[in-house]
Amino acid sequence: MSEVAVKVVEMEAPEQKSLFSSSRILLVGAAVVLLVMLGRQAGAYLPQFVAWVESLGVWGPVVFVVGYVVAAVAFVPGSILTLAAGAIFGLGKGVVTVFIAAMLG
Fold it and tell me: What is the pTM of this model?
């Protein structure tokens, strides 16, 4: 009789594990969709961010790096930010700034 009970328990365990995996996949998928949606909305504020960074002077590159890192996490396209860095800081300083930001983000 105990052998039957052991077999029943062994059969139920994989079903619970697959349900847990499915819920985890759904949760991760929902988080990715939410981040993409937030990233698209944040992209609308990019021109304002660029104008603000230009007005900061010496602190501009530091703020740009922080903004780039946040934008990368929020799935804002990095190519737009990279082009903005070139326009704000020039080729040399823009490349260095984007390199640092990309390594951190």
Answer: 0.57
